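Work Package 3 committed the consortium to producing structural models of liganded targets before the mid-term review. Because experimental data for this complex are still outstanding, the team generated a predictive model from sequence and the ligand definition alone, so that downstream docking and mutagenesis planning could proceed in parallel. The input record is reproduced below exactly as it was submitted to the modelling pipeline, together with the SMILES string for nicotinamide-adenine-dinucleotide.
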Amino acid sequence: MKGSTNKVAVVTGGAAGIGAAVCRFLARDGADIAIWDWNADAAQGLVEEIAAMGRKVVACKVDVSRQHDIESAVKAVHDQLGPVGILVNNAAISPEKDFVDITPEDWDRVFDINTKGVFMCTQAVIDDMITARWGRIINISSSSAQSGARRMVHYAASKGGVIAFTKSLAQEVGALGITVNNIPPSTVYTAGLQSVEARLPGGIEGYVNSTIPVKRVGQPEDIANAVAFLASEASGYITGLTLSVNGGRYMQ
Ligand SMILES: NC(=O)c1ccc[n+]([C@@H]2O[C@H](COP(=O)([O-])OP(=O)(O)OC[C@H]3O[C@@H](n4cnc5c(N)ncnc54)[C@H](O)[C@@H]3O)[C@@H](O)[C@H]2O)c1
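The resulting structure, written out as tokens with the ligand in place, is given here.
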């Protein structure tokens, strides 16, 4: 999609699942790719794939809750690819626990990664966008923040923070040529979903049939398509949006 060409895109949690699909789609659209993942080894195959597409690519070992990791990764990206134009805040953890069992440590860990990580990664690259007077920030939130989700109070609350972050930052940086949007996925077939598959009543198929109007599970590419659009020139008049790519599970 026009607009990603020759831009540098950082994708957090880009080694697997939705993030890996996002890396592929942005590379297809002409961006150079920085994969920031705490499991950077898992990105090796993807690095080779993107390089074979003729794009520059770097994988950095980053825990998005650690500022030192982020600072080192920004330096590596500047040295190897250049200033950042596109940031996809996708890395997150999604633990489940009954509310009464959630400890303050559980709460902090979820917020440190899912919400504070979004803040720190964004702050680390936004100067590049301000200088260029062009930027695209796309945050992957969750439909759980829209609908609520039992046994995921901490997760859903952390993703609600991401939606509020999106709208607030969009107001602050719109005049600088930077758009900030978020996509809340619902039921996307990745390792995260596979790990809870057995516990869903009726399995994935039963869950999909009873909750998703389009009657199929989401694929990482469904989300990556929307990210590619929001990263493109064509989306320049859209900011602060919550773009629900969820097969209709939650309708705004
Ligand atoms: N899959 C779904 O159905 C679904 C639904 C709602 C929201 N989401 C959101 O979509 C995003 C991607 O989900 P997914 O299903 O692809 O997940 P996934 O577990 O398949 O992949 C997540 C990636 O992020 C990395 N990661 C996790 N914590 C990290 C950290 N602290 N620092 C750096 N990297 C880290 C992992 O190593 C992995 O490569 C997440 O924000 C998730 O909350 C997914």
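Reviewers should note the following from the model. The first helix runs from residue 17 to 28. These observations will guide the Year 2 experiments.
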